[in-house]
Structures are given as C-alpha cells and as structure tokens.
Design a protein that fits this description.
This protein is mainly beta. The chain has no helices and 43 strands. It folds into 2 domains: about 25-280, Neuraminidase; about 305-540, YVTN repeat-like/Quinoprotein amine dehydrogenase (Methylamine Dehydrogenase, Chain H). Mean pLDDT is about 95; it is low at about 1-10.
C-alpha cells in the first residue's frame, strides 16, 4: 500500500493510504493482555498466522489440515471475539508441510511457503479475503538454494520483493520480482541477514510498513528487533541488542507473529498450545512510583459534604474528573478538577445513588474509555457493573449486572482490572486477602472465574489495591499499620507469583485511616482517601 510519512511525538510515524498511522512497537512496554484464541479444533499443528488489514479476519495455516483457515472477529483486532468461518483453502497439492502464509494487501492473493518442497506458492481469490474462492495459479518460486527448511515468508508492501527465513541457514533471504506480486518472476537478490548470533532457529519474522524494522522469533522464545539502514534491503539489518521481549510465559514454542496495522498490538501463535495470544506494544508513559520517597504535595480535597467516609477513588484518563464512593451516602460522587490531577482544585459536579444495588459501596473502577463503571459493595459482597451512555458522566449511569464473590470475599475493599478487561484483582479486609479472576468476555463480570487467592502477611487489613498497567507491580493501602505496601509479580496479574518488595510508605502523618488508593496515569502522583479527616490527599512519587 502507498505510504507517506508524518512526524509524531514518538519519532516518525507511517501513515497508510487507509489513514492508519503506524508507530513502531515498543517491546520494552509490551505485555500480555490475557486475550487469546485457540485454533486446536481446526488445526493441531498450526504454523503460520496473518490478519486482514482491518483486523476483522484472522488466517492460520497448519501442517495437519494442510490448509489456510479463516476466522472472523466481531470486534476488530480482539481475539476474544474470534470464531471459525468454516472457510479454508487446501494447499496440500503444492506443499503438505506448509509453514507460513502471507496475504496481498488488497486480499486478492495469498502466498505460502513449506518445508516439503522449499518453495513459495501463489494463490488468487475471486472474492477478496474469502478463502472459499481461492485457487492455485500455477506460480511458484524455489528458495532451496538459500534455505532448505523455510519457516516464514513476508512481502514488501509494494509487492516487488519477498523474504524467507528458515532454520537451516538461520538467515532472512531477499528475493526481488520483476512483476509485483508475481512470484514466478522472482530471483534471489543475493542479500541476506544472518541472525544466528541471536537466534539459532528462526521461526517467524515481520516488517514495519516502511521496511526499516524487522522483528524475529525463534526457539529462544524471545522477540528480537533489527534496524535496516536502507529500507527493505535485508542485508543492511543490524540487531538492537537492548530491545527484546520474552514470549515463554504464554507458550514456549512461538511459531508465528504479526502486528496490528497501527503497531499497537502484537499477536503470537504458539505451537505448544495451538493458541494465538494478544499483546499490547504501546508506550504507556508510565514510570513505577518511588513509594518510599513519596512526598505530600500539601494538597487535598474535603469530601465531608458528600461523604464522611470516602472509600474508593478513581480518575478519568486526563485527570480532569475525580470520582469517589462512600458508605455513608451510598453514592458515587463526581468532582471537576479545574487543574488536571490537582485535587485541591476539585469541586462537586454531581452525585448518583447506588443504594438500590448496595448500601455499602466501597470500591470503584472505571473502564479506561469511561463507558463502564464497577462498584464493589460489602453489603452483599458483590461487584456491580454499570454502563455510561456518556463517558465519565455518572448522570448517564445505568445498572447492568452484578456478580457475587462471597465465596472468596466477605468484606470487599478494592478492585482493579487490567487494560483489556480480562483480569480482575479484588482486595478484602478479611485476613488481608487478594483474589484473582479471569473474565472470558472482556469487561463482562458474569464471565469471571476465580483463579487463586493470596494473603498479605505485612498487614491486618487490605483497604484498596492498585496495579501497574503491565501488572508486574501491585500496591495495597493498609489499615493497621497505616502504610502503602508495594509488591512484585514475576508473572503479570498472577497472584501466585506475588512477593513483597520491602518498599512501603507511611501515610500516618496525613491519612491515619487511609481507605482508598489511586495513581495518576503516568505513575507520578498518588492519591489517598482518608476517613479520619474526610479528605483525599495528593502525593508526588
């Protein structure tokens, strides 16, 4: 597809002709979103993965069915909404050990490479992106002169070159075509990128849209990044040794990879589990708070008019709104902040009663886009889900559903969702217990299942819980003693891997009875709701 360049705050972005802006994936901030899709029912030996450019179709090739399989996504780029379309294209006549598939950007052709014949084969579709209309067009390109075990094929965006990686030569080889997208006109360009120093058996790779970056995965279970000093000239590639991402937490045998069209998500196909996994690859702008060295900003918000026992607190994404729930008013309260993230500038805007659902609202969380609110109520030990027809406007609240967690918690005190809405962590005052849940449908609490519990020995009561966006750090505000405690999670959002970091912050000077905890979206500010003085206090971290 034709490309133009536009400068962004992160460097140079690539803008496609369909208006999608690409920003190179940030592997340092990459994390698993706990969103996946199993393909094992259709293919028990999956080997290759690709998406339609708008994210509404997913394609998997495998060596058991010897076919390309088509899946539809009811929500673009969201694997949790994927389902098999009952459409496929048999490629066994050309290669019965297919390893990779690539689609032309207009969806009228696709290409495979396999290890049975060590060649790239071309297929056309009479209806774009519809595998049921595919047929082999008797065009191929032999790559055995460079690679006798090809595992992945990718094309330049204008169709004038393709690239093959394999486990025999441990290199990516470049082929040029005199007629774009016609593999029968291909010849080896005498250009390679040797990756053996980093990866002994490369399985899969992918390019940035402008051809200046390559990402590669092999048996080391690590995504590695390469920079091409001349775009699309594979021989000019050099390894970025400081950039990598480990894939083994989800699957120890990642066999194929690709990215969302804007670079904000990465998808990895695991051969050990026959599952496609979804990751965020955006720069979150978050720095973990330095809890031991936090300092009071001498700024607070008096909540006594609305509720004398402020509990759960939350902000909208730009810090211009603050929300609080309390068990005295049985309501959620919305404050406007005239200076973003400065609670001393807060004024009450409106309040909405939650008493119909629970007379002891304690915990509060908003979906990042502001279209859902979640309240934890200790009156019935349940989590309540609300819809907002106008984002972050509580006057548009409507109750959706509730989910009891009384089997795990008899005194809920806090809750936190991951950014994809597929993981939920709940804190409770009984035994300072945390509980971990997985939601099979994102943001739908009726689909939650309890995974595990963890008891925090450092405190008597866990009053509120917050996690880092990646889920590798967790903070709890405690009552007895009055501290904010920090914990590490070696596997994000997995409480079985939790360990106290020996970092804590004494809140007794301002908030001797701290009940609610929240952070600014970049981690630079901490907020504590305190019932002793009925205030929300602000700290720099």
């Amino acid at each position: 597809m034709p490309l133009v360049f536009a400068r962004s705050i992160l460097g140079f972005a690539v803008v496609a002709d369909d208006g999608v802006t690409w920003t190179n994936p940030d592997l340092a901030d990459a994390f698993y979103e706990y969103v996946s899709s199993s393909v094992t029912t259709q293919e028990s030996i999956p080997t290759g993965l690709m998406f339609k450019d708008d994210g509404t179709k997913m394609y998997v090739i495998g060596a058991n069915a010897d076919a390309v399989l088509q899946y539809g996504l009811s929500t673009a780029w969201d694997l949790s909404t994927a389902s098999y379309d009952s459409a496929s294209a048999d490629v066994s006549g050309e290669d019965d050990q297919p390893r990779s598939v690539f689609f032309k950007d207009d969806g009228t052709s696709f290409y495979i490479v396999g290890t049975a014949n060590n060649a790239v084969y071309q297929y056309n579709m009479t209806t774009a992106w519809d595998l049921s209309t595919a047929s082999y067009v008797s065009k191929s390109a032999d790559v055995s002169g460079q690679e006798t075990s090809p595992r992945c094929v990718r094309f330049k965006t204008d169709g004038t070159s393709f690239y093959v990686a394999g486990t025999a030569n441990d290199s990516i080889s470049q082929y040029d075509m005199t007629t774009a997208w016609d593999v029968s006109t291909a010849s080896y360009a005498s250009k390679q990128l040797d990756v053996s120093a980093q990866e002994a058996s490369p399985f899969t790779f992918d390019f940035s849209p402008n051809g200046d970056k390559v990402w590669l995965v092999g048996t080391s279970d690590t995504v590695r990044e390469y920079t091409l000093s001349t775009a699309w000239d594979i021989s000019t590639g050099s390894h970025e040794s400081s950039v990598s991402f480990t894939t083994s937490n989800e699957d120890a045998t990642v066999i194929s990879m690709t990215f969302k069209s804007d670079g904000s998500k990465m998808y990895l196909l695991g051969a050990a589990t026959d599952t496609v996994y979804q990751y965020s690859t955006v720069d979150l702008g978050w720095t973990n708070p330095d809890i031991p060295n936090a300092s009071y900003d001498s700024k607070s918000l008096d909540t006594s008019t609305e509720d004398t026992v402020p509990r759960g607190i939350a902000f909208n994404t730009d810090g211009t709104k603050l929300f609080m729930v309390g068990p005295i008013s049985d309501s959620v309260h919305e404050y406007d902040l005239s200076t973003a993230w400065d609670v001393s500038t807060g004024t009450i805007n409106q309040s909405e009663s939650l008493a119909t659902q629970d007379i002891v609202p304690i915990a509060l969380f908003f979906k990042p886009d502001g279209t859902k609110m979640y309240m934890g109520g200790s009156g019935s030990d349940a989590i309540y889900e609300y819809d907002l027809s106008t984002a972050f406007d509580i006057s548009t609240l409507s109750f959706n559903q509730s989910q009891s967690i009384s089997a795990q918690q008899t005194s809920i005190s806090g809750l936190f969702f991951n950014s994809a809405g597929t993981k939920l962590i709940v804190s409770g005052t009984d035994g300072a217990q945390l509980d971990e849940y997985t939601l099979s449908t994102p943001w739908d609490i009726s689909t939650e299942t309890h995974n595990r519990s963890a008891t925090l020995s450092e405190m008597t009561y866990a009053m509120s819980v917050q996690l880092s966006p990646k889920g590798d750090k967790l903070w709890v505000i405690a009552n007895i003693p009055d501290e904010v405690y920090e914990y590490n999670l070696t596997t994000p959002f997995d409480l079985s891997t939790i360990a106290y970091s020996n970092n804590k912050f004494d809140i007794g000077t301002q908030a001797a009875n701290g009940l609610g905890l929240a952070f600014k979206t970049d981690g630079s500010k901490m907020y504590i709701a305190n019932s002793s003085t009925t205030e929300i206090f602000q700290y720099s971290t």
